[in-house]
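Weekly modeling sync, notes
Attendees: S.R. (lead), two postdocs, one rotation student

Agenda item 3: backlog of single-chain predictions. S.R. asked that every request posted to the team notebook include the full sequence so nobody has to chase files. The rotation student volunteered to paste the first one in as an example of the format we agreed on. Action items at the bottom.

Example entry:
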Amino acid sequence: MSVISRVLLGLKQDRFFLALLAGLLIFSVVQPARIASYGTLVDWPTIAALTGLLLLTKGLELSGALHALGRTLVESMGTERAAALFLVATAALLSTVLTNDVALFVVVPLTLRVCTITGMPATRIVIFEALAVNAGSALTPIGNPQNIFLWQRAQVPFTDFIWHQLPLVASLMAVLLVVTAMAFKGRRLAVLAHETVSLDKRLLVVSALLYLPFLIATDMHQAGWAAAAVLVLFLVLRPRVVADLDWGLLLVFVLMFVDLRLLAGLDSVNQLMRGLGLEQPTHLYLASIGVSQLVSNVPATIALAEFSTDWRVIAYGVNVGGFGLMIGSLANLIALRMTDDPRAWKVFHLYAIPALVVATAIGYALLFL
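Predicted structure, as returned to the notebook:
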C-alpha cells in the first residue's frame, strides 16, 4: 500500500478529521469569499516545528533503541509497583521531548507486551501513562502541540517557557506518582519471555544528533528551514522514516487552524467569547480548561489565542484541561484505543475526572494565590 493510500485510509476512519472536513465544507459554502485566504489562517511555523519533531521521533522509534532500552530496564524491575512507577515516569519523561502522542506510541506497546508476560493490569497502567504524558508534556515547548503553538506564537525563549511550567508539572507528577504507588501492588514480577530487538545504529545516531540543532533552529524561529533539512536528510538516508510519518495528523492540525480561526471570526462567537471576560486571568484560566473539555486542548488553545495574548495563563489552563473527559487531549484517545479494552473508557474517567479537579486547584493556586 502506498503512503498516500495509507494516509487516506486512516483519514477515512478518523472521525475527528471527518468532523473538521465537514466544518470546512460548511464554511466554504457559507463564506465562499474566504476560501482564497485559508492558507493564511494556518500557523505554518507551528506545523513546521511539529513536522520536524515527528520526523526525528519517528527516526528514534524505528531505530529500535527506545524499545530495547525500555525492555532491558523493565525486566530489571523487581515488583509490579516498581514496574508501574518506571513505566509511568518513563512516559512522562519521554513526553517532554517526544511529544505526548509519540511517547504513548513508544511506551504503550512496550507496556502491553510487559503486561502479557507478567500478568500486570494493562488497562490501568496505560491509563496512568496517559495521565503521565499529559502532565509531563506540559513542561516543555515541544512536549505537545498546544505548547508548540503557544511557544511559536509568544516567541519566548525555550528555557523561559520551561521555568514557567515547572511548578505545575512538578506538582502534578508528585501527586501522580504517589497515586501510582498506591494503585499497584508490591508483588514480585515473573518475566516469562524475552524478545530480540534489532537496532539500526545509523538511524539512531542521525536522529539523536539532529535533535539539538533542530531545537536550536526552531528556537531561533527557523522551524521551516530546519524541518525541510530534516525531511531531505531522511529522504536520502532512510526513506522509511518519511513514509511512516503520520501525515494525516499534520493534515488534521492544518484543518484545525483553518476551522477554528474561521469559527473565531464569526460575530456570534466573538460576542460569546468576549462575554466570558477573558481579559481577566481567572476567567481565561477556567475558560481554557472548560473549552478543552468540549473540543480538546489543542483546538481550545488555537481558539483562545485569538482572544488573549496571555500565553502563561492559557498554557496552564489547556494543559490542565488535558485531564477530565477523554476528549480533553488527543493523547487520551490514542492511549485508550491502543488498549483494545471496551472497559477502558469507563475506568479512564474514574481516574481522570478526579485528576482534573486536583490539577485545576493546583494550577489556580500557582497562578493566583
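Discussion: group reviewed the output briefly. DSSP finds 19 helices and no strands in the chain.
Action items: rotation student to repeat for the remaining queue; S.R. to check formatting next week.
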